[in-house]
Amino acid sequence: MANGVTPVEPNPDFLDDVRAAAGGKGVILACEGGGSTESTPSFQWGKASRSLTAAYRIIKSDAVSPVLHLKGGVYGWYKTFGNDGFTGEYDTGNIGRTPSAANDP
């Protein structure tokens, strides 16, 4: 298990799917925890995440530009802005079950 998620096989069409979805524009990537390349007391070498890994793959391949990453993820957005920008309610039932919910990830 990684970040509370059971790993799956990589999507061989990932970069093609990103190009198609972007439609010639850039992309913004986000996941629950967001990840970071910055050192913190909790994560000395940064915090890995699915969206950060995807951003790396896209940047390395030059598939799309620009590539932006939502620091702190959806949870960070929720902590900062509440439900502004969301449709429906954010499910806080699983908060704290993974290190991505640390106060200073």
Main pleated sheet: 2 strands, parallel
Assembly status? single chain
Main-sheet strand order equals: 1-2
Order of helices and strands: HEHEH
Unreliable residue stretches: 98-102
Q: What amount of the residues lies in strands?
A: 5-15%
Describe this structure in words.
About 5% of the residues have low confidence. The chain has three helices and two strands, in the order H-E-H-E-H. With 105 residues, it is mainly α. The chain has a two-stranded parallel ribbon.
Topology readout:
Layout: H1 14-22, E1 27-29, H2 50-61, E2 67-69, H3 73-81
Parallel strand pairs: 1-2
Briefly, what is this?
Helix content is 29%, strand content 6%. It is mostly helical and 105 residues long.
Q: Key features?
A:
105 residues; mainly alpha; two-stranded parallel ribbon; 2 strands; 29% helix
